[in-house]
Amino acid sequence: MAGELVWKSLSNARRSQQESAGASREPSVVFVGTEGSGKTILISSFIYKSRPDDLKPTIGVDYKYTRSSPTSGNDLGGKLVTHFWEIGGGQLYSAALPVVLTPSAMAVIVIDLSRPATIVPDLLFWLSQLTSCAGSASAPQIVIIGNKYDAMPTKDADLIGRTLRAMAMPYNAMLFYHSSDNKALQQQFRTVITRFILDKPNAKSAAQTDPTRPLMIPSGADSPDAIGHPPGGGGLEAWPAAFRRVFPEPPAQRIVLPGEQQLEPEPVVDALWVQKRDEPIRKVEPSRS
Fold this sequence. Notes:
Layout: H1 2-20, E1 28-33, H2 39-48, E2 61-68, E3 80-87, H3 97-100, E4 106-112, H4 119-134, E5 141-147, H5 157-168, E6 174-177, H6 183-197, E7 216-217, H7 224-227, H8 239-246, H9 267-278
Family: Belongs to the dynein light intermediate chain family.
Organism: Plasmodiophora brassicae
InterPro entries: DYNC2LI1, P-loop_NTPase
């Protein structure tokens, strides 16, 4: 019953957004990606221009919106409403994606550079989900953000960067790194989102591919020749496999649903249980009255 209410609420919110967008353009930005990759912080830093101290992990789907004044010459008039959706919990709530995503939306996939083993499986999953949602319609604009750049293992920066570029290019996705401790990267993120909101194309710029610096690959600015061949040979499609040889995919873990308690081992209790289990069964003689 609770699940039905959640879906009904999501559907109503999405329908309301579509109806209100009938008279004017109301952009949507949908954040998905690795659990704990910093999606909530990114959204909050854009909306509130600072990082709140009391942020909690997002469970399920979260919605926020902003109102801003269109730039001079924009014929929208009045206040421009932008819808921000976040699908939290990693892949657990991915079924909500078709409800909140539209072809005109920007889809932002956030990956965690500090946990390289999660990069390829999570990116493959969300790119596949976005493609499935688009179907025969035009795909949404895709932006891939490598977050926590400051914690990325520097010795593997070239492998990580080339793999991400090889995975982003077939989807014509923009790719760049971000860190909450780097003001220049924060401003870069704000600029990309703001230009999308105002329906302005991003300024033409050359790709920044130096692995010793944060990547910035504008949409359509990369090429297979620039990315190169992975160790062992092959084309763009061979990079994920080469990456996994260095960073094997972590073993699948059972998903713990919200509210479900994870019990810690209790050695004393466990020992007593084993002792009780192994006790011989005593035959009880009937009492004589």
